[in-house]
Amino acid sequence: RGFLWNGFLFQYPIRPASMTYDDVTHLSAKIKPKQQKVELEMAIDTLNPNYCRSKGEQIALNVDGTCTDDTSTYSSKLMDKQTFCSSQAASNVSRYAAAVYKKGELHLTPLHGILQLRPSFTYLDKADAKHREREAANEGGDSSQDEAEDDVKQITVRFSRPETEQARQRRVQSYEFLQKRQAEEHWVHLHYYGLKDSRSEHERQYLFSQGHGLAENTELIKSPSEYLMMLMPPSIEEDNDKPMAPSNVLSMAQLRTLPLADQIKILMKNVKVMPFANLMSLMGSGTDSTAVLRCIQQVAMLVQGNWVVKSDVLYPKDTSSPHSGVPAEVLCRGRDFVMWKFTQDRWVVRKEVAAVTKLCPEDVKDFLEHMSVARINKGWEFMLPYDEDFVKKHPDIVQRQHMLWMGIQAKLEKVYNLLKEHLTPKKPEAQSAHPLLVSGEKRVNMAKAKVKQNYGQLEKDFQKQKAEMKSNDTSAKMDVSNIRIKEEPVSDEELMDTSAYEGMNNGILNGLHAEDSMDSLNGHLPGGCVDGVAQELKAFVSTTFKKQFVLTLSELKRLFNLHLASLPPGHTLFSGISDKMLQDMVLDTGCKQILVPFPPQTAASPDELKVYALWEAGDTYDQHRQVLLEIFSKNYRVRRNVIQNQLSQECGEDLNKQEVDRVLKDCCVSYGGMWYLKGTVQS
Predict the structure, then answer these.
(1) What is the spatial distance between Cα 371 and Cα 336, in angstroms, rounded to a whole number?
(2) Euclidean distance between CA atoms 400 and 388, whole angstroms
(3) Which of 16, 84, 442, 580 could form a disulfide with 523 if both were Cys (CB 3.0 to 4.6 A apart)?
């Protein structure tokens, strides 16, 4: 099955039925000593009944072609030989030896290497090369014109740069360089001597020990256990052969061998959110809690009394999002915003986070899944309950974390231009209490009870305002007997929670009940109030569009309600403004409705589908904005390069980056590498 040569054991593969290892007249060998590489060429018995002659002829024809010369691999036009090439069978052979048993003695010879001989198929590469040459010759043609064209070739001259040390090391370690080095070493041809040859017998004597007494072999005068230990030392290779765990997985035993700071960092990076008590239970016995507190603050932030891993630990510098390619700095800001939202409330709405951070839905979902659980029709709830015990035991840590969150809040306010009222933190007392979890049915019942409680006061205010309007109409000598105000009783089956508007003009939205806020007067007002209301409404619309340029009807109504909330009681705008009046005023102030082609499966409301834009602002960018709005009247979303090319064509000038950014900032938002009109992005 093999042979021993110069301390190397050579093993043959399984022998085919037609292979003749014992046919010494047809065996040749060569070796590359430096590479410890051997090639043996053995004959194939072509007369064996198991040999397929047609296959042998076909292989020889594919390899050598029809011509026969000295370079032919198979001179007999038949595959009559097989080449075997050696490969390392084991990396550590110190435990192996070649043994010979003679006259009751066992003689061991240590091995320096074990090479296994495998069939070499380089003749197939030669056949492929000849096939490619024949194809190239057929395609090339024999015309003189082709030959003339082949003679004229363009030559590019390049001057090589001085090779740096790093480039040289990379070149030396490359596969091509190693292959070249191996090919440079010349083969040394070997001579074969038969089994009964005197030279073979002489070499075979080296397998027997020349000593004839145990006194000379002092290593063998040991106890059986020591001798066995010498004969079979502990294997290092077996340890390496054990299946390795993933690179990001550590056992608890391995983890506790690391420094305390590294232990905490690895745990927090994998768990993401953890109460302090659970963290201490994972630490080794006798670990100082003060040291753990000092280390945890370096890699995590306190949220709801629990520790959440910092964003820069999950998204190190010079990394990017696997979903959108957004750099780590932007991801850290977006995740910090989510963490900050959970310091204010137990619930976060994904759509709100996406609208503020302008990140792709996959990134936002990753942020939320790190620290919260999705609840159907409610939003995302922080995954752990409020840890009141930690807050009471460590007030100094809580205060320090609160100051850190104030600094993060200031940064978020600058980056995302958040409203002041949204940045007002909750009182510390609210955080020290247990969070109140209310079911959906309870919320509906509470809203109904609140509406019933406030209905009497709302009705009185409404009747009082109605009487004032009648007195104003009488003094102005106008007949308003035909004006009827729609009044619908509040039913027990369908009530609206008006708690959101309690602080807004005594529960009245736009001067009327919330149900009738935009349609109660069908777009008409008493004559004495028309001019004042129209002027105030026009001023609001004009000012708003000069700041925003593009607004959906839904967003405009929201801004209008905020504007009403800031006005003193009894203002003329409380007379009641319908949707029709608001839209007519938008068109009267020089705005136009942009018919954006929304996707067919859009989930936007009717008010969100109505998009209005200021057509002329009176500045130098009016023409550019008009071209941009025309683009979005035909496309729901557009790439930046398309916008820039269209602007250059329509305006007849090459705009620089600052000018294009100015126009895009006025009317559009970027989301996922595409540009949308403001308010039209569907997350």
Answers:
(1) 12
(2) 17
(3) 580
Check: CB of residue 352 under 8 Å from CB of residue 383: no
- Distance of alpha carbon 622 from alpha carbon 628, whole angstroms: 10
| 8 Å CB contact between 11 and 2 | yes
| Report field, pTM of the whole predicted structure over 0.85 | no
- Sheet hosting strand 347-348, strand order edge to edge: 347-348, 379-382, 372-375
Could you tell me the sign of the dihedral formed by the alpha carbons of 329, 331, 332, 338, in that order? positive
φ/ψ region of 31 (left if φ > 0, alpha if ψ in -120 to 50, else beta) reads beta
Contacts of 51 (CB under 8 A, 6+ apart): 18, 44, 45
Integer CA distances (angstroms), 370 to 329, 365, 383, 588, 647, in order: 18, 9, 9, 49, 43
Look up residue 44 and give its DSSP letter: B
In whole angstroms, what is the distance from residue 545 CA to residue 614 CA?
Answer: 6
Residue 329 burial (C-beta neighbours within 10 Å; 0-12, 13-18, 19+): middle
**Measuring CA to CA, which residue among 305, 312, 311, 283 is closest to residue 295?**
283
pLDDT in tens, 578-623: 888 888 888 988 899 999 888 888 888 888 889 999 888 888 888 8
Spans of all domains in the chain: 1-44+80-135+175-210, 252-416, 530-677
- Longest CA span, the chain: 142
62-82 pLDDT per residue, tens: 888 777 677 777 878 888 888
Locate the DSSP E strands across 232-371.
Answer: 273-274, 300-303, 306-309, 347-348
Tokens of 9: 């054991």
Distance (Å) of CA 148 to CA 154, 155, 322:
14, 16, 53
Strand ranges inside 388-453, DSSP E: none
